[in-house]
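Hey L., structure's done. Input below.
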Amino acid sequence: MIQITLLDPHPVVHQGLKSFFENETKLSLENAFYRSHELLQFLKEKSVHVLIIEIDLLEGSLIDIIKSVKNACKDISILIFTSQPQSIYGVSLLKAGASGYISKQVKKEVLIEAIEKIVNCNYHITSDFANQINFNIDLNDAEMHMTLYLQEKLK
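Output:
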């Protein structure tokens, strides 16, 4: 069984994912957190296979949180689950240690497929995003994309 935990500041997402995984036989939502320090404490005590994480958090730098999680749990797969554009933030987050990026607009089956893929293949990206990486995104400027996002968020 794939054990999952969630870091997302939105209560409706917590309830939605609990409902999504309630009757699943291959997936289990072990815990859900609103704040990163609670998540990191949990991960010191329990290992899980997948962390599902939102970009818009209540505290801290997402890149720092991803790096902290990966340092604490090297085998954990991190799936970015957000409504924010993959084309802008995806590369930075993948470089920081995320295993995949998926929109909150997807159906349950697509989310489950992405989770299984990051556990079994170590990554999940859409073909559209792969094409953007190959043709349009300067990987050396990935940190700049996240900086621009954070600046926009603080306005």
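Residues 2-154 form a domain with the Rossmann fold fold (CATH 3.40.50.2300). Helices lie at 11-21, 36-45, 62-72, 86-96, 108-121, 127-135, 142-154.

-- N.
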